[in-house]
Amino acid sequence: MSDEQRFLDRLAERNAQRGNEPTWVAARRQAGAARFEALGFPHRRVEDWKYTNVRDIARTDFTLAGDAEFSPATAAALTLPVDAHRLTFVDGVFAPALSALGDLPEGVQVLPLSQALADNHEAVGGPLGRLTGVDFSAFAALNTAFMEEGAVVRLAPRTVVDKPIVLQFLSRSGEHQVMSHPRILVEAASSSQATLIEHHVGEAEAANFTNLVEEVILDRGAILTHYKLQEAPIKDSHIASIHVEQARDSRYLSFNLNLGGGLVRNDLVTELNGEGAEAVFNGLFYGQGRQHVDNHTWANHNAPRTFSHENYKGILDDRAHGVFNGKVVVKRDSQQIEADQSNANLLLSDRAEIDTKPELEIYADDVKCAHGATTGQLDEEAVFALRTRGIDEQTARGLLTLAFAGEVMDLVDLDAVSERVELAVAGKLPERFNLAGLVETASALNEE
Amino acid sequence: MASQEMEELVRREYKEGFVTDIESDTLPPGLDEDTIAFISKKKGEPQWMLDWRLQAYQQWLKMTTPSWAHLDYPPIDYQAISYYSAPKREEDKPQSLDEVDPKLLETYEKLGIPLHERAALAGVAVDAVFDSVSVTTTFKEKLQEAGVIFCSISEAIQDYPELVQQYLGSVVPQGDNYFAALNSAVFTDGSFVFVPEGVTCPMELSTYFRINAANTGQFERTLIICESQAEVSYLEGCTAPQRDENQLHAAVVELVALDDAKIKYSTVQNWYPGDEDGNGGIYNFVTKRGDCRGERSHISWTQVETGSAITWKYPSCMLRGKDSVGEFYSVAVTNGRQQADTGTKMIHIGEGTRSTIVSKGIAAGRSDQSYRGLVKVGPRAKGARNFTQCDSLLIGDTCGAHTFPYQEIGNSTAKVEHEATTSKIGEDQLFYCQSRGIGEEDAVNMIVNGFCKDVFQELPMEFAVEAEALLNVTLEGAVG
């Protein structure tokens, strides 16, 4: 039996358990399954998957989780300490007990996808699957075939959401390795504003597979800040396809923070369709052990006077493998574009590897596009400067590595997120960097 | 600029377009083992050479055309191409310019490269290739004195079989890629250079390639070997007559540099780019690779690409030797409906290897241009260093400029930097020039030449002059 067939068999089992669902949902599910079967899992001869091998996902017999039981104490420890409207999913299953939506302001709808589908809610019928079609990738097709849970966020015109909306995805360790295919749909009407925190975390021993599809529609002047904090357990596989559509004067600010997961792949696409639309992609990834982190981004400038800025930083230690592929596409007649793109990587070990490709595809002449990629070590002069101030070499390297990540972390506006990331990065730094001693000294000095 | 004036410039005909009427000894179109046997026999090759060609052919049959390049062209019918064409009277090759067919000399006159004058003025030895057979070689004796071998690859196969057997295919193996395999099977000529230990070649070596005779593919094979501490600079320049049918060109160039050797390879390519609708024009699929085998060896590629309808070309360096250096300097200009997918590969294998890539792309008209490069640092390449700068200039709103730079870094001590920009010619720069009485077209030429300066200064003197002129001609009518 082929790997693909095993997944399709799981789908058939699940479909047999399903009650009645709207015909359009069943039709899309079918289309997803057919497309997945036709495409098959990507192999490394496919350009977009040249550096990422998904064989381990394909060969594992993942089941689907049946419940959302999770120790409240563990959940509390994992949850970001932030005052928010929160939905929690355990292995893809909605967990009402761990969710707290609180009082949503008027004009804001946040609901689990299962509920929206069951109600045949107007929020899902049209937009769901419009941006991420089944043709995007085998994983997007697979997600469409299995889609049943996730979140729907809908903002009425001129609504400003008071608190961040947190979507928390918990991965559980257990007898079976499970897969989940969450689907997030955000529709922000004109001039609305929100902050979305997507947090992937779980029990250390978990070894599950998350296959996420996310569609974000920003109407005129809408502003969305999107934190994707991926701290999945080290044996988890995490595949995410994120599509954003931006109308005139909208702004999408993305923080793609990848600290966890064994095999991680993010596809982030924005369609800049209206004049004045702007996308900012900030990214940070830290790989250790045999972690594999692959970030693919596309900024498609489909209209004149659209802007994109991208800054991804990677730190790779041990035998970790990082991949960055950023692409800026400027369509014909999309004049007066400004796009810049930068990817900087730090290799801390001789067995770590980075494959980076910042691409430009430009069909208009009145553009200002620049990209850069650097890979290397710390600036020796900076190390020297710190040493002249009495800091030993390894500590200096530790501090500079932190500062390297800081260039992205410092842009994070939410303390709960930035502190979490800073601590995680500091905790990952190799012991030789000796930072523990420095932190103690600093706190001792503070006490004095 | 007045639009009428502009239109005239746009409609400018290809300056080098004419056909020389020389009777060719041409093989009918088609490719099979008999074709290869015919070529081999015609060249009087030994059995091992024929076997090598047939091996390549067998591999080619199993391969498929690469499709990853950002190029759009109809499939090539390899059976519709004639694989051999040589000027007649092959038996009594001319020994000096006086004996050369006056029509051929006339061709060179039209091109503005009078062979004798050029050779005398610049002190350059020219192994001129007219279609597939080398017609005349000059300064051979002077080179022989220095111990440098410079001859056609066919002669080398006859006269220096050990050297050819040792090095041919050692940098670009027969089955390296589709076009290299095809070339290995059917190559008809090209140059062979061998510079022995400690010798600095006393002059710059140069070959002018010409494509003539309708429907004839040109399959050149060039092999340059520099023994330890040897040094050579090689110039390759091309121009072709106007023609309606697409002509396929699939050349292979192999460079081998041993300890402390230095090879500088410069190209000016100005083949027929096709008419304004993109008809005709040369398909140029070239495999160029240098092997820095020795410690501290140095290979430098400089190219000015202004011609061809399709360019598929990635001069590369395998940096094996400790502290070896690879360089790539490129200016590519596309206008009309030209398409170019070009760049380089720097493979850092040895410790302390360094490479520099400077690529300047200028796209005008309805052309499409891509830079595609790979910098790979292997786990043993401690302290490897690369700097890449690739800039694109867009002229007009109907062209495209793309960059696909691959970096694969597997060593923490490596330092790899890539920078790229894409922009149009600055309005303020143009205005500045025009306010000082410089016409728009001249201003654009000045700005473009300034944009390309980093590359032009790497070219040998006479090439640099030619390149600037070529650039101006190529961009004529592109500005408005």
Q: How many beta-strand segments of chain B?
A: 24
Tally of separate domains of chain A: 2
Query: Biggest interface and its residues per chain?
Result: A-B, 36 and 34 residues
Helix content of chain A: 25-40%
Mean pLDDT of chain B comes to 80
Strand content of chain B: 25-35%
Task: List the main descriptive attributes of the protein structure presented here.
heterodimer; A: 448 residues; alpha/beta; 2 domains; eleven-stranded mixed beta sheet; ten-stranded mixed beta sheet; 11 helices; 26% helix; globular; B: 480 residues; six-stranded parallel beta barrel; 24 strands; SUF_FeS_clus_asmbl_SufBD_sf (chain A); Fe-S cluster assembly protein SufD (chain A); SufBD_N (chain A); SUF_FeS_clus_asmbl_SufBD_core (chain A)
Detailed description of the structure:
The complex is a heterodimer of chains A (448) and B (480). Chain A is of the alpha/beta class and 448 residues long. Chain A has helices at 3-17, 23-39, 55-59, 72-78, 113-118, 122-125, 138-146, 380-387, 393-409, 415-428, 435-447; strands at residues 63-64, 85-90, 93-94, 108-112, 150-155, 165-171, 178-180, 183-188, 193-202, 209-218, 223-230, 237-246, 251-258, 263-272, 278-287, 292-301, 307-316, 321-330, 337-347, 353-362, 367-376. In chain A, strands 1, 4, 5, 7, 8, 10, 12, 14, 16, 18 and 20 form an eleven-stranded mixed β-sheet that branches. A ten-stranded mixed β-sheet of chain A has the order 3-2-6-9-11-13-15-17-19-21, covered by helices on one side. In chain A, helix 2 runs antiparallel to helix 7, helix 8 (380-387) packs across helix 9 and helix 9 (393-409) packs antiparallel against helix 10 (415-428). The termini of chain A are far apart. Chain A is 26% helix and 37% strand. By secondary structure, chain B is of the alpha/beta class. Chain B has one domain. In chain B, helix 10 (427-435) packs across helix 11. Chain B is globular. The interface between A and B is medium-sized, with 36 and 34 residues.
